[in-house]
Amino acid sequence: MSNMKDVAREANVSVATVSNFLNGKKVRPKAAKDIDLAIKKLNYVRNNTARFLKTQRSAFVVFVVPSVWSPFFSELTFWVQKYLDNLGYKMVLCVSENDYQKEKSYVTMAEEQRVAGILSISYSDLTSHVHSDIPLVSIEKESTGQFSLVSSDNYEGGKIAAKELSERNIDKYIFIGSANHSSVEMNARKAGFIDYCNNHGLKFEIAEVDSRKNDKKKIKNLIDEISNNGKKYGIFAHTDEIALILTQEFQDAGLKIPEHVQIIGFDGWKLTPDTHLTISSIRQNIEEIAKTAVEQLHKEMEDPDHREISRLMIPVAFRAGDTTENK
Amino acid sequence: MSNMKDVAREANVSVATVSNFLNGKKVRPKAAKDIDLAIKKLNYVRNNTARFLKTQRSAFVVFVVPSVWSPFFSELTFWVQKYLDNLGYKMVLCVSENDYQKEKSYVTMAEEQRVAGILSISYSDLTSHVHSDIPLVSIEKESTGQFSLVSSDNYEGGKIAAKELSERNIDKYIFIGSANHSSVEMNARKAGFIDYCNNHGLKFEIAEVDSRKNDKKKIKNLIDEISNNGKKYGIFAHTDEIALILTQEFQDAGLKIPEHVQIIGFDGWKLTPDTHLTISSIRQNIEEIAKTAVEQLHKEMEDPDHREISRLMIPVAFRAGDTTENK
């Protein structure tokens, strides 16, 4: 493989001139032309590893994410990669599958490779493991208070869900949580729902399912209750995944949606940029989350000595689908 | 930031001993203990950029993919990252959005960074742009014949779709293609469908929709035809995305699925590892595609001077959902 010296020799100029040319500095037009020809002839490719080593700056940003195989995470990954790319950073994708040991090994790798920064979405205590002063921005959860956090306004989302249900002739309100999400930030959805119900004298119940186990029995009990009871139910599900499971199970059992029971999820899953699920949901503004997180990280990477720890909250909105009645 | 010399000084050993220790070679127990303490005290993090530069080997693999925001690509990205990680490689995620200029810039970046290899899924002529002798494996499409290809057995998938429909009392068969996928490999689905129909004397028609534009008018014409005609229709859609659009539009227009029209998609979208769409589909074995592609690339990266250009075909299977009748 040819190097900068070979190019200089071929173009009959000094190595410094080649370096200036490659770094966009001014060189004589004749030299520029000769260097250009030499690069093409030698099929010279610049070695950026060497360059980064010299400047101590890397173009890599590590993105630690529990999954990319789920509409929320794949949309988030899409936008994070796009905004990083816009700023000239390359994304090293690290899927943790919620495995703390994997998360730790990714952080170690990031430190060893001297990457420019880390973006993470982790439901464990990942940030407590980061020792170095590497810039890091968390999405959705951050427990230590040592790093910036970008998250949806989950509390407001819970209130909006309760309000939307209350405008649709509901007799009985139920919040169905997710047994596999324990973060303070995500539980704010539940708190918002409860506070709205209490403030408006609405009777509600709290239940929980484990979306990984599908929790057939709990769902069956719920179906029996709704079937044997003339009342109209309104459910706010902690995530779209739970809302989807409930919708399918209810329909399989012959319950009519939205006549017998109305369901609002949380996330607003879009399967592709043009295809979304038809369940009603509190939609997270995932593009805005990604953009805000990347911009915050960029600020911290540009000026690591003056990091400000921020808590950035992104608004959410109700998206009507076919699991709620028209108002 | 401390370096290897600082560790050696702190541990009172030679730099060579520290290097041996870090590379897993044998050192005296006392030295090992002292180095370990020194590393902890100095908060020393190994600089792998320097190491890779020296050995001319990088742990990075660039993955060029049109999107991660779509169930097929997000599942594929999930498995590719997992199998790369198992072999100790880090994935640099490069989303091209089918933009040829972006694809080119990612390849340039890969060559400049001296990454270990490239995995790509591209519907443009990406591989024709790769100049260096960097190991590259394509998924789903490869036109130049210069690089290995891993793809589903699309032709067999088309035959299976026609056969499954023919076992379900269909009067009229339609293939609905995708105006935005022009690769030879994906069009094999259509060829398999046509060949099966011709070989078994089944009457069929060919239509095309552009899933990005939603093609409302073409779909409306189809709905009118099916509604005004007592016949039972069987549709094989080029992708699940098209199958999903058709299913929603048909249902909105009051057509009954599977009574009036049966639909089989292609991909077998799973929204998450545990949630799949309920449309009937020819399911691609995405884990096997990813595994095979990563293993092939690994072989080529380990021994770049003896690369064998392979064409690897992964079997597909029918997955019954609720858009076809039970047999």
UniProtKB/TrEMBL annotation, chains A, B:
Keyword rRNA-binding: no
Gene Ontology molecular function, alphabetical: DNA-binding transcription factor activity; transcription cis-regulatory region binding
Parts forming coiled coils: none
Keyword Cytoplasm (UniProt): no
Boundaries of every HTH lacI-type domain copy: 2-55
Transmembrane segments: none
InterPro entries recorded: HTH_LacI (IPR000843), LacI/GalR-like_sensor (IPR046335), Lambda_DNA-bd_dom_sf (IPR010982), Peripla_BP_I (IPR028082)
Pfam families documented for this protein: LacI, Peripla_BP_3
Keyword field: DNA-binding, Repressor, Transcription, Transcription regulation
Record-given protein name: Catabolite control protein A
Name of the gene this protein is made from: ccpA_3
